Amino acid sequence: MSIVTSARRGSHLFVTLDDxxxxxAMTDGLLAGLEAVFDQVEAxxxxxxxxxxGANGAFCAGADLKSVGATAKGGKDPAWVSxxxxxxxxxxxxxxxxxxxxLVDGPAFGGGFGMTCxxxxxxxxxxxxxxxxxxxxxxxxxxxxxxxxxxxxxxHARRLALTGEQLSxxxxxxxxxxxxxxxTADALxxxxxxxxxxxxxxxxxxxxxxxxxxxxxxxxxxxxxEVAADAFTAALRGREGQEGxxxxxxxxxxxxxxx
Length: 259
What we know:
The protein is an alpha/beta fold. The protein contains eleven helices and nine strands. The chain has a single domain (4-185), classed as 2-enoyl-CoA Hydratase, Chain A, domain 1, CATH 3.90.226.10. Helices cover 47% and strands 15% of the residues. It has a six-stranded mixed beta sheet with strand order 1-2-3-4-6-9, sandwiched between helices. The chain has a three-stranded mixed beta sheet with strand order 5-7-8. Helix 4 (111-118) packs across helix 5 (145-152). The protein is globular. The termini are far apart. The relative contact order is 0.14.
């Protein structure tokens, strides 16, 4: 069974992340599935909307930390390669020509937080949780940083990144991350249907050009993805990153938490 499934309804594409074993973490399989969806979206200029949701009570738990620490064996460090791929992934999601709606039910941590920041509109249930959790593992929110800042502003991004604070759906509304909340995913359906109808009234190609123009107002430097991959790899291979990932895998607190 595919961990990324899609269903077309008119000019709207509904995509579901469904990997319960990892809580929809950003594994190679999940990224490959979403990259295939991006190929489809980019090939269909008349598509109005991509709706992205997670199954089994989770949106996306972030990086696949059980594999991200693979040891380098000559050539490019695999952590660098993986992080660089992530940077390209987020940039591509952010630049999709159609309207992107994220429907978040459950955790959206790390890279999952980044994915919501790349959406144009974000809906969240009462059990949605958002966190920039990387620094609590001795790592850094590298590739998602420009998208987070563009979505919620530098002030909120600094606080959330430096504390790892978890936000509920309502608190996420307060910082500008979430646009609409309801108790359950079912309760969000009328809101979603209203948004889809509104978007359908707009020319899909006009929307695509509008997104591109708006995003050109605050572009990240062309070298950012490489710089971010360097910084992430250094953090992962450093003492804090090694301890943080080990603590995550072993389900314990990192040593610095005890000092």
